[in-house]
Design brief:
The chain is mainly alpha-helical. Helix content is 45%, strand content 8%. It has 6 helices and 5 strands. The protein has helices spanning 21-24, 30-35, 54-61, 82-87, 98-122, 135-157, and strands spanning 17-19, 39-41, 48-50, 127-128, 131-132. The longest helix has 25 residues, at 98-122. The radius of gyration is 25 Å and the shape is rod-shaped. Mean pLDDT is 74; it is low at 64-90.
């Protein structure tokens, strides 16, 4: 049996270790003891995990990882944000925040807009596959890029 990494407030991100039901039975709710037989424990935070009712649905959402990482199924003991499970890297690095992502994409769109402004200002000709691209395309692309950059900056300034 393969186990998922522990995802908790402590962000242990270590492989869960299988444990016999008898060793942790005092920590389980009565219904959990009755309906589940396979359990594991996080060596970091000591939380108990089992293949709960959300595991079947969640396993369809989570990407399958290689067997050397030992992660193929989701075992849950508490509510877990699926997005966090997908974005948390196996190496333990934190995922990129929305603010950072928004800032990076805004800069990219600002650079695209600047490229179109330079084309318009200097009258540069753009040819793709033998077709001369009219300047109205750069005007349209400039407006769209500025809009997307401003939305990204707005999201980056937005408080959590």
């Amino acid at each position: 049996m393969r186990w998922l990494r522990a995802i908790s407030e402590a962000d242990c991100n270590v492989l869960l270790q299988p444990v016999r039901k008898e060793l942790i039975s005092e920590r389980l709710q009565p219904e959990t003891k009755q309906y589940y037989d396979e359990f594991c424990v996080c060596p970091g935070c000591k939380r108990v995990y089992w293949k709960g009712s959300r595991a079947v649905h969640s396993s369809r959402l989570l990407p399958r990882e290689s067997s050397d990482r030992g992660c193929v199924t989701l075992f849950v003991a508490r509510r877990i944000t699926i997005t966090k499970a997908i974005l948390t890297s196996p190496g333990g690095r934190r995922p990129m925040s929305q603010k950072t992502f928004s800032l990076i994409t805004s800069v990219i769109f600002l650079l695209i807009a600047a490229g179109h402004v330079l084309r318009l200002a200097f009258g540069w000709k753009v040819t793709i596959a033998g077709q001369l691209i009219p300047t109205w395309v750069s005007w349209t692309a400039f407006v769209i890029a500025i809009y997307l950059a401003s939305e990204g900056l707005r999201l980056a300034r937005k408080p959590k």
